[in-house]
Amino acid sequence: MRWLGLAALLAAVPAAAQLSSSEQRMKTTVDAEQGRTLGLLERMVNQNSGSQNPAGVEKVAAMVRAELEPLGFRVRWIPLPQTGRAGHLTATHSGKRGTKRLLLIGHLDTVFEPDSPFQRWVREGDKGFGPGASDNKGGVAVMIASLRAMHAAGTLKPANVTVFLTGDEEDPGSPQRVARADLIAAGKEADAALDFEGLAQEGGRDMGSVARRSVNDWTLTIRARGAHSSGVFSAGSGFGANYELARIIDAFRREVAEPSLTFNVGLIAGGTKAQLDAGGIRAEATGKTNIIAADAVARGDLRALSQEQIDRAKAKMKAIVAQSLGGVTEARIEFEDGYPPMAPSAGNRALLDRLNVVNRDLGLSLMAPLDPLKRGAGDISFVAADVDGLVGLGPSSTGDHTPAERVDIPSMWRQATRAAILMSRLSRERR
After folding, report:
1. Closest Cα to residue 272, out of 291, 290, 253, 254?
2. Residue 419: in which H helix or E strand, if any?
3. CA 60, CA 83: separation in Å to the nearest integer?
4. Which pLDDT tens digit goes with each residue over 288-319?
5. What is the pLDDT of residues 10-19, one digit of tens each?
6. By CB count within 10 A, which of 19, 50, 80, 379 is most buried?
7. Stretch (H or E) spanning 10
8. 170 shares its domain with 60
9. Are 317 and 334 in contact (CB under 8 A)?
């Protein structure tokens, strides 16, 4: 697949480019259906769908099914009880043969579980507060609004579109190979992937996202000889587990860093005894000031822009752990699979170029690529190795993942119009 560069694309469009009649119809439909779209968003927000609330996730999926089936989508629920999560909703619209196949990605779950005090939609002017108001129920509402606009304009009928909404994006089920197998398979069948998570902004300007970093967790475990503290630093007693842990973590900071790579230390414990709970989110330690620490543990994450960068970082971290202060009996680091990276490929940048042609035709400012350090990991990364992708077609917001989460309502109409026109144009192209 070859994409034209932005300069060539813009040069091919008249300076005063106008929307086609069908594109103008899409814009008009998005605006006319604002009340309907906000009503859907309110209903979804008011239904709790924390990642660990399978019944709630399925109820939100039912709301989405009711929107997609009348548009001609064949909707399927993929239950995944073996992963400890609800499952995924996928919907397929078959159009003209031989044209590009689009994959639209979002998620049904939120970080707010049923015991959270943050449960209801509240509107204050142009802002809407609520769990998932933006992440990602706002994005799902934008996706549906754009598809309804395409349907009204007649551009959905010939389009080949697959919608894939995961039920565990915020807290993925395990094993990961099962939890993401269907999404990966959908990516292999697509020609372009569009992610409806939130729109990034800088200085009040909308930004395009062509990359997302990975996230992998790591656990560091140290075992050392426990002894009376009077012998610390000696050949017989050594330095203990806490000094070894401090050496390793500080060496990570000094020796592993490179551009676009970060590694956080989120949890530390050390003492005569130190251990993590089964979920790895709590630690318990006991000890005294006059006893050399025998146990130490730490957990953190690693975020990178490419698999090559991940491999380099892991190799450096393992080498640092393999060095040792005196008295250490065991030091090991273990890595857990997480979200893979979405590298900033030429194909991804070309999709942003196509979106910028839409922006120009709508009279909107062009969108520069967002620094991937300013965006977290997401589900589109699981298909990034197989298909070109673009992130951030959902609404803009603030306070995501906190009780202050609020969606910028006017951005929903801008985003739905952009998406509808972009998808209509892409779906007409030959594969």
Report:
1. 291
2. helix 409-428
3. 19
4. 999 999 999 999 999 999 999 999 999 999 99
5. 554 444 468 9
6. 379
7. helix 6-11
8. yes
9. no
Query: Has residue 1 been placed in a domain?
Result: no
Strands (E), 30-69: none
Structure tokens at 112: 């707010």
CB contact set of 313 (below 8 Å; sequence gap of 6+): 256, 258, 261, 263, 302, 304
pLDDT for res 61: 98
The whole-number average pLDDT for the span 153-173 is: 97
What's the total number of domains in the chain? 2
Tell me the pLDDT of the chain averaged across its residues. Answer: 94
Q: What is the pLDDT of residues 40-72, one digit of tens each?
A: 999 999 999 999 999 999 999 999 999 999 999
Instruction: Report the C-alpha gap between 342 and 427 in whole angstroms.
Output: 23
Dihedrals φ, ψ of 388, to 5°? -65, 145
Cα pseudo-dihedral 52, 56, 62, 64, rounded to 10: -70
Residue 395 confidence (pLDDT) = 98
Q: Is residue 324 a contact partner of residue 331, using CB atoms and an 8 Å limit?
A: yes
Domain assignment of residue 324, given as a range: 215-339
Q: Are 44 and 137 in contact (CB under 8 A)?
A: yes
Say whether both 68 and 125 belong to one domain: yes
Tell whether 265 is covered by a domain. yes
pTM of the model: 0.89
DSSP string, 167-184: S-SSS--SSHHHHTHHHH
